[in-house]
Amino acid sequence: MIDHAASSASLRQRTLLVTCLKTAPTGLTASNVLIVGGESVTGITAEWIAPAVPTPPEATAQEALYFAALPNKDNVLVVRTNEWGDFSPYTFRLVNDASTASQDNLDLTEALTGFDPQLAEVTFSLKVECGPQFDCAPVPPDCPPDLPTPPPINYLAKDTARSVR
Predict the structure, then answer these.
(1) What is the pTM of this model?
(2) What is the mean pLDDT of residues 91-97?
(3) Which of 2, 87, 108, 150 is most enclosed, with most CB atoms within 10 A?
(4) Cα dihedral 78, 80, 87, 22 in deg (nearest 10)
(5) DSSP bridge partners of 17
(6) What burial letters (b/e) apply to 29-62, b meaning 16+ CB within 10 Å?
(7) Half-sphere exposure (CA, 13 Å, Cβ side) for 100?
(8) For the chain, which residues make up each domain, given as ranges?
(9) Phi, then psi, of 19 in degrees rounded to 5
């Protein structure tokens, strides 16, 4: 995902960089991408998908420079999403047809032809380098103040005092 290292001209949190084991496939369209998940923001789709090299025509000049400097740039797919997501996990899948894959009741989506089904999907977050706007640290326990030091007690001492009537 382009975020911290991205230029201000880039669409931060809407540009995914997917690294493939082999050279990134060409000829993919937005219908080959299925993004599921999210809690408050769902229904995220791909606007476009293209290999990082040659630079996608939809990319800005600054993005083109960034893509050209990527390590293993020949193996990278660039995906632009239609909107920003939330902090929850999403699953990115490369499929033959996103419209039929999204209707699969058994979640057995058909992986993109030529891809290993286990490698055709990955779980990710659209907020990789964004801290939440709330504090998720546990609340410290409400402990009572420290008790005073107890008096010294000698169990070997004898109580010789007797009560008189």
Answers:
(1) 0.68
(2) 89
(3) 2
(4) -20
(5) 78
(6) eebbbbbbbbeeeeebebebbbbbbebbeebeee
(7) 8
(8) 15-124
(9) -95, 125
